[in-house]
Amino acid sequence: xxxxxxxxxxxxxxxxxxxxxxxxxxxxxxxxxxxxxxxxxxxxxxxxxxxxxxxxxxxxxxxxxxxxxxxxx
Length: 73
Description:
- Helix content is 75%, strand content 0%.
- It is mainly alpha-helical.
């Protein structure tokens, strides 16, 4: 099954089931650590950012991508 077919299947689901899929995807993304290449690209964006808000947002992406969302307190 291709990604396009999966997306078509999701579109045909009732709204409640679509919402469950959206929650799952957000959770999956939040838990995923980034690859070295992805982190390097974010680091370049961070260094070249001229807007402090954008720099802060990219910094948070780097931290989340390096450590994931589950941190030991």
